[in-house]
Structure to design on (413 residues):
């Protein structure tokens, strides 16, 4: 590959494929990208579940707002594979990075060790949705085409791009298990992690979910919900045209407060949220807590075809359990009302277990150029995968659900 206009032949069992790198998502037609990503078509049809984060619109908003740019250390290097007829067969969101911020799969220790040994870890290539720890497809192959073939084509192109730039590594984060196994077969190092997701087991309402829990957990959640609403706090759901710029102003204040305390500098700017409201309002759920007629806290979620994705939360007032109410319990209520299969509540959080969110394995894959660094990271990942699996089994044994699997709608005294 030679710059953004260059192409290469990738030979396999199928016919030759042309791969090019583009320096911005706008260089790819939205219909072509979304046909691979599984985004909504004009007639509403799709053959795979809709994940809003890998859509052309969402990635465009990140770039157009300036949240993703050379100034923020996320330089777009998207890879696009074309079939023999010139149509887009597969694509991959890829970025040249000068740091490890906003990724949620941490490699700072690898970078530090390599640089102390005289190596240069940055820049690196990151295949990901920036600032978004949401599992999903990263090798976006058009439905009906061979994932193994076109996934290998994209992986080979990423490796070649890394060699051309002389970067240390390629990191594919929060990918699907099938993609993880495919890349592992190509020599990528395989890493696992853990998130906590809530699963909808056909509940008709929140009480139906509570009835599946052990009595002590039901009492705890009812108490937390009651305490969260104390002090004349009301809860409001906002989506679609109900979301105004005033709501985004309020939410941005929440986001800035949380971001400033957690990681020093929030990743997203105010323009990002306006663009999100303009282009993807129907995919957005804002949950606000109001007191005395004004918003005091809020949670931002994105709505997929089968899941609700919790993303950001913030508050200007401190109220017990309000975080749990807005981010976990209200999300469950919305998912049940919409008939969604699950709620993915983001990174971190063993505290989510007691609220009905169970541990799930997440996946990442890593190509490392330097043989010595690769060997060291491989040893580390062998131990880490074993630890993640052990911890997941341990946490699952402490799930809050009734051990007999039955439902109990009786009230506790």
């Amino acid at each position: 590959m030679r710059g953004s206009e260059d192409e290469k032949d990738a030979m396999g069992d199928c016919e030759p494929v042309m791969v090019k790198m583009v320096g911005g998502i706008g260089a790819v037609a939205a219909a072509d990208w979304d046909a691979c990503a599984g985004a909504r078509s004009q007639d509403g049809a799709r053959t795979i579940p809709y994940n809003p984060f890998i859509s052309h619109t969402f990635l465009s908003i990140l770039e157009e707002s300036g949240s993703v740019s050379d100034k923020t250390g996320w330089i777009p290097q998207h890879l696009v594979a074309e079939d023999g007829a010139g149509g887009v067969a597969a694509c991959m969101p890829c970025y040249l990075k000068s740091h490890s911020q906003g990724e949620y799969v941490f490699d700072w220790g690898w970078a530090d060790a390599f640089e102390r040994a005289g190596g240069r870890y940055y820049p690196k290539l990151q295949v990901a949705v920036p600032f978004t720890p949401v599992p999903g497809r990263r090798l976006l192959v058009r439905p009906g085409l061979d994932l193994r073939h076109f996934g290998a084509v994209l992986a080979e192109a990423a490796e070649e791009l890394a060699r051309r730039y002389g970067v240390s590594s390629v990191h594919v984060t929060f990918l699907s298990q099938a993609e993880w196994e495919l890349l592992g077969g190509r020599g990528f190092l395989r890493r696992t992690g853990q998130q906590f997701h809530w699963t909808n087991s056909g509940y008709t309402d929140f009480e139906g979910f509570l009835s599946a829990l052990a009595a002590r957990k039901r009492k705890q959640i009812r108490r937390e919900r009651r305490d969260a609403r104390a002090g004349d706090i009301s809860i409001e759901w906002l989506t679609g045209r109900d979301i105004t710029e005033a709501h985004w102003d309020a939410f941005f204040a929440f986001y800035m407060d949380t971001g400033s305390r957690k990681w020093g500098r929030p990743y997203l700017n105010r323009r990002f949220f306006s663009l999100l409201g303009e282009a993807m309002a129907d995919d957005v759920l804002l949950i606000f807590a109001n007191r005395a007629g004004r918003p005091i806290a809020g949670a931002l979620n994105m709505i997929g075809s089968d899941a609700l994705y919790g993303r950001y939360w913030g508050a200007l007032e401190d109220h017990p359990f309000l975080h749990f109410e807005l981010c976990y319990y209200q999300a469950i209520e919305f998912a049940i009302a919409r008939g969604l299969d699950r709620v993915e509540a983001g990174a971190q959080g063993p505290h989510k277990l007691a609220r009905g969110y169970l541990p799930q394995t997440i996946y990442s894959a890593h190509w490392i150029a330097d043989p010595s660094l690769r060997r060291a990271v491989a040893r580390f990942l062998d131990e880490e995968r074993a630890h993640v699996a052990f911890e997941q089994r341990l946490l699952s044994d402490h799930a809050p659900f009734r051990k007999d699997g039955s439902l109990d709608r009786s009230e506790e005294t």
The longest helix spans residues 371-396. The CA atoms of residues 259 and 266 lie 5 Å apart.
